[in-house]
Amino acid sequence: MGAERTARFAADATKCIRCGRCVAVCTGMVLEQQGDDPPRMLPFERYGWRGCWRCEHCLAVCPTGAITIFGKRPEGSLPPAPPETGEYLERLVANRRSCRRYLDENVDPAIVSSILAAMQNAPAGGNSQTTEYTVVDDRDRIRAIRDVAYAAMEEAAAHGRYTSSFDDFYYAKMKQSEETVRKGDMLFCGAPHLFVAHAKATGRWAADIAVNCNLATAYFELLANAHGLGTVIMSYPSDVVRELAPEAREMLGIPADHYMKLLVGFGYPEVPYARGVQKDRRKVHRWSEQAKGQLSLL
Ligand SMILES: Cc1cc2nc3c(=O)[nH]c(=O)nc-3n(C[C@H](O)[C@H](O)[C@H](O)COP(=O)(O)O)c2cc1C
Ligand code: SF4
Ligand code: SF4
Q1: Separation of 233 CA from ligand 3 center, angstroms?
Q2: CATH code matching the domain that covers 98-267, chosen among 3.30.43.10, 3.20.20.70, 3.40.30.10, 3.40.109.10
Q3: pLDDT in tens, 150-185
Q4: Cβ atoms of residues 199 and 213 within 8 Å
Q5: Cα 263 to chain center, whole Å?
Q6: Which CATH number fits domain 3-76: 3.20.20.70, 3.40.50.2300, 3.40.50.300, 3.30.70.20?
Q7: Which atom of ligand 2 is found nearest the CA of 54?
Q8: Is the pTM of the predicted complex or chain greater than 0.85?
Q9: DSSP symbols for 158-203
Q10: For ligand 3, atom 4, which residue shows the shortest CA distance?
């Protein structure tokens, strides 16, 4: 089997200290290290559950940078995040707010490219890389898509038809929001750009594939906020695009047989927030000895 050749796995015998870490973390269980030999890749049937997961853990774990795989060299990896990143991320999660007011500007394309490069590493079940990302970071194009979707939404409402998520009451409420929070745009909240994670989701893994898309959505939101952008995750506009405005979906270029649920509007925020909010209503179940095995509430 030519797996070793196609994965191009190699462990440099002069650098390898035979610590066994690559074997210990190999998700596909396709690495072996015996005696004084450097690790080698075992033959496998095919990539995925029946072989190498293409996870690159071996490349990442090796303390001496001895491993190359798929043509990737250790020097090409980013170093680990510094310890203070933990607090930074906690603050980011605590202070991120859904943004429904945007500057009417395109975001610097270099920032979008940087985020999208990081998004290649969003987790996915079984390390499947089937989640696709569609990004429209051109405000004129977004306006054109919005106009088509908006017209379809209004036309349907005029005939008493709404998305499966809405009825006349919610529709009227949303319309009302155009006077305030979604100024002039109940659909995309005035966001100049859109990100959508989508994938072909059929068969036994369909539900997991949908989860992958939604998880990618969350990763995108955090990365965008880390770059100072505003974001809003939107389900209602997605319902409009999927259920009422097929032409807008085509303009987005999302295939009809792909799962797609959440849209992320993003752009430079118009209104800065001075501090985080103080939410504390979620139940957190955390086992402790003192609670005598009962789940305790923080
Ligand atoms: C699954 C999901 C769907 C959402 N759909 C919409 C939407 O259609 N329109 C909207 O303005 N906000 C939408 N939001 C944003 C939420 O309303 C928002 O996250 C929530 O009010 C909490 O506010 P925060 O994000 O500022 O903490 C959605 C959020 C999630 C997670
Ligand atoms: S890429 Fe992952 S599954 Fe493949 S050899 Fe490396 S650690 Fe093992
Ligand atoms: S992790 Fe690196 S040093 Fe350790 S056994 Fe594997 S190749 Fe050798």
Answers
A1: 42
A2: 3.40.109.10
A3: 999 999 999 999 999 999 999 999 999 999 999 999
A4: yes
A5: 11
A6: 3.30.70.20
A7: 1
A8: yes
A9: HTT---TT--HHHHHHHHHGGGTTTTT-TTTTT-SEEEEEEEE--G
A10: 19
